[in-house]
Design a protein that fits this description.
Length: about 350
């Protein structure tokens, strides 16, 4: 199906960004080779100059600038093409994680006093940007909690490369343990708990279902995985999706390698099941799965393969591919019918927890 016209200008901008990134990386490497042994060390500052330099504000690192730009972009996206979330009751919690940094969990409570189902949720962002305070993420959790009548327990896991795998997996698993332990006190039904994630967050959600099966075996009832990346080796990328958009194979492969290098302490660990859940030795005894993919997203191959692996292991799993749209479709509920349908389908899946 042709790409939805809504994405035409966005595609042009995204394609230019990817080419600029690749070109910039190439220039840096060439400059490093050219300037090797040629750089001079500046003389140390003295007296008043040194004191003045010390008082100057420390410049932001490239990663900090990138995160600030991403947050500003997200704020604009919600205002121009998204849908604000309704007012819902929110509680904030800090969960201790053995031998790791603690993790913040925000619960979005639907209306009503009765005990309700809950979903442990993980945001996307290639493991290196994003957070539960991002405007589009917060708005989506609010709308899903209100429309599905399910409490959304959103996990603000640590970002890479400051914290690398398996920190995020252990934080996610600790949040799951905490949610089951504290369900009654939080007004949640521990017999009706699911898990959900988007992109990198879907990787964590899938990893936690494996960890839960291997450890405590809490009764998880559902997993909802949106545009999941479940194989960090890149072995299941479907590059036909981006080739149709005029984005060369090497640029897409470079982007995935960049994500893996940022998240993993060593790319050799990409074959570990909690890093790449698709590569687990067994997918038996995992919760029923609803997987959503997009036609113009190379990660559609991951979603298809994961659904097939779950079904082969006897797990109730469905994979739905949205035609004519891209990886971040769910954001555009203010302007794109497919995004609104995406939201409705996720809400329908979450309502299964009421059964």
């Amino acid at each position: 199906m042709p790409l939805d016209p809504f994405f035409a200008e966005r595609l042009r901008v995204h394609r230019r960004y990817l080419f600029d990134q690749a070109l910039g990386s190439m220039r840096k490497r060439l400059w490093a080779l050219w300037s090797f042994g040629r750089t001079s060390v500046p003389a140390p500052e003295k007296g008043a100059d040194a004191a003045k330099a010390k008082k100057q504000k420390k410049p932001l690192s490239p990663r900090e600038r990138h995160r600030r730009a991403a947050l500003a972009w997200d704020r604009t996206e919600l205002r121009t093409v998204g849908t604000p979330g309704p007012d819902v009751r929110i509680t904030e919690h800090e969960v201790a994680v053995p031998h790791r940094p603690p993790v913040r969990v925000r619960i979005y409570h639907p209306d009503g006093d009765a005990r309700v189902p809950a979903v442990l949720a993980f945001y996307g962002g290639a493991f290196r940007i994003g957070g539960i305070d991002y405007p589009t993420t917060d708005a989506a959790y609010r709308r899903r909690a209100a429309d599905a009548g399910v409490a959304i327990a959103a996990v603000d896991y640590a970002l890479a490369p400051e914290h690398r795998y398996p920190v995020q997996v252990e934080q996610a698993y600790a949040a799951l343990e905490w949610l089951f332990a504290e369900a009654d006190a939080l007004g949640l039904d521990s017999d009706r708990i699911g898990i959900a994630g988007v992109s990198a967050g879907a990787n964590l959600a899938a990893a936690v279902t494996l960890a839960n099966r291997d450890r405590a075996a809490h009764p998880l009832r559902l997993q909802v995985l949106e545009v999941p990346v479940v194989d960090l080796t890149g072995g299941h990328l479907d590059l036909r999706a981006t080739r149709a958009l005029g984005i060369p194979r090497f640029i897409v492969a470079r982007e995935l390698r960049s994500v893996a290098r940022t998240y993993l302490p060593s790319t050799r660990r990409a074959r570990e099941p909690y890093a790449s859940p698709l590569r687990a030795a067994s997918h038996a005894d995992l919760p029923p799965a609803v997987i959503l993919t997009a036609e113009y997203d190379p990660l559609r191959g991951d979603g298809d393969a994961y659904g097939a692996a779950l079904r082969a292991a006897g797990v109730d799993a469905s994979v739905v591919r949205y035609q004519g749209v891209t990886h971040d479709t769910a954001i555009f509920t203010g302007v794109l019918p497919a995004a609104r349908r995406w939201h409705d389908d996720v809400v329908t899946a979450l309502r299964r927890l009421h059964a």
